[in-house]
Amino acid sequence: MEWIQSHLGSFGVNFLSNISAFGEEKILIAVMCVLYFIYDKEAAKFVYRRFMIAGCGLAWLKNIVCRLRPYFVHPNVRCLKPVDPNADIYDISHQGYSFPSGHSEGSAAIFGGTAIRLKKTWLTIVTVLIVLLVGVSRFCLGVHYPTDVLGGWAIGIGSIFLFSLMEKLIEKRWIIYLIWIVVLGTGFFFCTTSDYYTNYGMLIGAFASDLFEEKYVKFPKPRNLLWGFARIVGALALYFGINTVLKLPFSSEFLSSATVAAYSVRVIRYAIVMFVSMGVYPLCFRLFHKNEQA
Fold first, then answer.
1. Burial 178-189 (b: 16+ CB within 10 A, else e)
2. CB of 67 within 8 A of CB of 97?
3. What number of other Cβ atoms are within 10 A of residue 61's Cβ?
4. pTM above the 0.85 mark?
5. What is the pLDDT of residues 220-238, one digit of tens each?
6. Which of 30, 44, 178, 205 is the right S-S partner for 36, CB 3.0 to 4.6 Å?
7. Are 48 and 206 contacting, i.e. CB atoms less than 8 angstroms apart?
8. Would the CA dihedral through 196, 198, 203, 208 be positive or negative?
9. How far apart are CA 225 and CA 185, in angstroms?
């Protein structure tokens, strides 16, 4: 890692930083939005069911292994792209632990799940390239060991097949969801990083929205791309807007504190945001469906 970083140069750092972005929240959310609101709702559900347990399971496992990032241990390894650029690079609660790699897991679960579901050769090739490059970028940038990347890939891909196996063995999906909520909820007893509580809240909200949408909403596919992108804009506005509003009753010091109360608020906040954005918000699609047809 030291040798690679000594030969990267500014161009290499910028290139790998941009590649690494394909494993970050914004890109992954964008992919999910296009799948869910425009292209294929059922394909999106296939992907995010697996991604949610992979993301939360990874944060849960990080807090068990508690492996420090390479630059914590090796002074000659530089942190070229911190997880949270607004926090101290040595603040564990914001930068998180090293094993496994969340970017590697996220890219493998989202892009890999999409490729497996859609079964398109070109998409599979692109997916393999993206997942490989994202993983390589993480240890080149000094924020993960290569074994962290391998662990992230294993969790991302493993979650796809594990959830499929559970669907074959357990008929009712709500039981599968309850199992994961209980198992991963044990993180409240030992997790000390904010990413676990963010992911756990999103997991609860996503699972609840899936069941709600399937039973009460069943929104139709948009008639054209313009209406599809309008849906995405509305969903993102709700996602960030509600998240902001739900923060207002609390001070920034409280929200950033490593306390059970602050973590509980974070879980509730993200659960509400996900449920409203993915489950309740699509109720309005039928109201505008005639306009979409026009």
1. eebbeebeebee
2. yes
3. 18
4. yes
5. 888 888 888 999 999 999 9
6. 44
7. yes
8. positive
9. 39
Q: State both tokens at 100.
A: 């496994």
Q: Which amino acid is at 4?
A: I
Tokens of 220: 């139709």
Token code pair at residue 11? 């161009």
